[in-house]
Amino acid sequence: MARFVVRRLFQMVLVMFAVSILTFLIFNVIPNGDPAERMAGRQPTEVQIEAIREEWGFDENIVVQYVTTMRKVFTGDLQSYFTQLPVGEEILRGLPRTLSLAIGAALLWMLVATCFGLYSAMKAGKFADRFLTIIALIGISMPVFWIGALMNYYLGFKAGIFPNGGYVELTRDPIDWAYHLILPWTALAILFIGFYSRLLRSNVLDTINEDYVRTARAKGLSERRIMVRHVLRNSMIPIVTLWGLDFGAVLGGGAILTETVFDLQGVGQYTADSIGLLDVPPVLAVTLLAAFFIVFLNAVVDIAYAYLDPRIRLQ
Amino acid sequence: MSAEPPLLDVKGLRVSFATEGGIVRAVDGVSFTLAAGDVLAVVGESGSGKSVTVMTLMGLTRSPNARFEGKAHYRGTELIGAPEDVLRRVRGAEIAMIFQDPMTSLNPVQRIASQIIEQIQEHEGLPDRQARARAVELLERVGLPRAEERADDYPFELSGGMRQRVMIALALSCNPSVLIADEPTTALDVTIQAQILQGIRELRDDTGAAVIIVTHDLGVVAEIADRIAVMYAGRVVEEGTVDQIFHDPQHPYTWGLLGSITRVDRPRLKRLPAIAGLPPSLADRPRGCHFRPRCPHEFAQCTTVPPLEARLPDQPEHRDRCWLAPAEKRGRREVAPGEIGLEAKEGATA
């Protein structure tokens, strides 16, 4: 276990290092990427631009620029080029919103997909199964920015059943918090519900024909116990694994569109805004954070996998 | 033996499955009885319907495509067509089953003791501690070394032979009256096979349970069974005691089966003896005797189905489905009685 943790930590450092270099390089080769020109405002003079270059260190060698920027990442002094606000604080402000969205949506899609998938498998080939299959395919085919916008417009703006975007702090009013998040959770979860219920259905149908399920039946167990203890328990192992990875991906940028559509002002929306401005420091910081989440959740998933399936050993 | 009603009485059992290739008649009129302490071997090639027969007794072949006919009485309970909740009380508690492949028949992510405890608690509702004590005791009884520690192992931590012992412990955990073993030794190597069979026989002696053992291995049969039913293409073609079948086989298919046993103490043959041809497709079986196309002794009468009946006056329990006269058969049998893979026992009848 200790070896596993050390190795994963080492891997995390490597991944984040590579990600930071790539992000930094990409923004340096993008046409029109010179931040000094854009920071100088409209119709700047060459002197003004030069002054900004010197002040922010844009005239330095790219290696030096990278090292300076990364030092700021670790000391927390990173500033946006355009708003000049500290990046760390902005991310910390957005993180609870992104986490609220991601955790709620992940729980929702897992719960609903488990019910749909199991029910579909038990009714395989019948009407209910076909109906759920079509629903799942529709869910998979709907882009989140489209279904999100529709939900926001019809249920939020027109019908007024739900708030029209926005976010309320959990600590201020938990009910209002959930009320504001119902639409974003649903919009984000729909795609995953489609995928997960299809996957669970096929896993359950595979598992149901396993010899040990026949043994369980020969033991005289109730159908319910057979389905839960023996079929579902074994069918869920790969899905729980996938769940962890997808959760990491949602935290690492998968929720950008949802946050933007529902104006949640989370990390995703901050990223989207910063990319639009070619604002390197926030994008770099958020990318590092995303890489961290993904590598971290990968490790968590591996530990969970070893726990769920004793045949797997961590090494 | 026939004074009291038999433990298990199967009459005219038929099982068919609707498939895309037509209706598959897997079991076609199988009847047998079983008294306490009996060991019945059901023998036949793959696809002869032997596994389907025994699994049907426990309702394990039920599916939307399956059709069942006939009766199977177990101590006053009719098993065929019984509602699931009635059957559920029989499964594991009254009739228990040991499956063919111990590598896949145990839940890979559940500790072995827990798999046994689960069954005990389902049927007897014992508290955890007592159920566990019984599980460990059972594991000891079937010869799992250091049972107390190993009870918390997962199946993958045990060898094939040990897993089959766990399966046996599981089957015995509620003291069933009928133990069904579906090819219990097929997946195991030869030395382990003997130990497992020895174990099953001891358990029969200890508990007085009746045993049905399904196998295609005649060595297993000779080792453990009292009676044999030979199945071919869904029908019993011959049944009798082990001595009768081994020393005076009546059906040409049985001759073929017995002739297929190779012996290391005989001169090596150029080719391994085998029955020519293939078993018929169960969706499209030949008219009359199903063995007809492969039988070198076929004659006109074979196109009608021969009834399963006793044809030897001195062996009323020895029945077969072959139209040939017994005297004719003895002349045509290529292997002499007593020469068929089993040494003549003292006082064997013939």
What does this structure look like?
The complex is a heterodimer of chains A (315) and B (350). Chain A has 315 residues and is mostly helical. Chain A has helices at residues 2-29, 35-39, 46-56, 62-75, 87-122, 127-141, 144-158, 174-208, 211-218, 223-254, 256-261, 267-276, 280-308. Chain A is built from 13 helices and no strands. Chain B has 350 residues and is an alpha/beta fold. Chain B is built from eleven helices and twelve strands. In chain B, helix 3 packs across helix 4 (128-141), helix 4 crosses helix 6 and helix 6 (160-172) runs parallel beside helix 7 (190-207). Chain B starts with 7 loop residues before the first strand and ends in an 18-residue tail after the last helix. Classes of the chains: A mainly alpha (315), B alpha/beta (350). Chain A binds chain B through residues 210-212, 214-223, 225, 229-230, 233-234, 237, 308-311, and chain B through 58, 60, 84, 88-93, 96-97, 99, 101, 104-110, 118-119, 122-123, 154, 156, 167, 170.
Please specify the SSE layout and strand pairing.
The complex is a heterodimer of chains A (315) and B (350).
Chain A (H helix, E strand, L loop, with lengths): L1 H28 L5 H5 L6 H11 L5 H14 L11 H36 L4 H15 L2 H15 L15 H35 L2 H8 L4 H32 L1 H6 L5 H10 L3 H29 L7
Helix pairs in contact in A: 1-13, 5-6, 5-8, 5-10, 6-8, 7-8, 8-10, 9-10, 10-13, 12-13
Chain B lengths: L7 E12 L2 E13 L4 E5 L6 H8 L8 E9 L2 E2 L5 H7 L4 E4 L13 H13 L3 H14 L5 H4 L9 H13 L5 E5 L7 H18 L2 E6 L2 H7 L2 E6 L2 E7 H6 L4 H8 L49 E2 L8 E2 L5 H7 L18
Parallel strand pairs in B: 3-8, 3-9, 6-7, 7-8
Antiparallel strand pairs in B: 1-2, 1-4, 4-5, 9-10, 10-12, 11-12
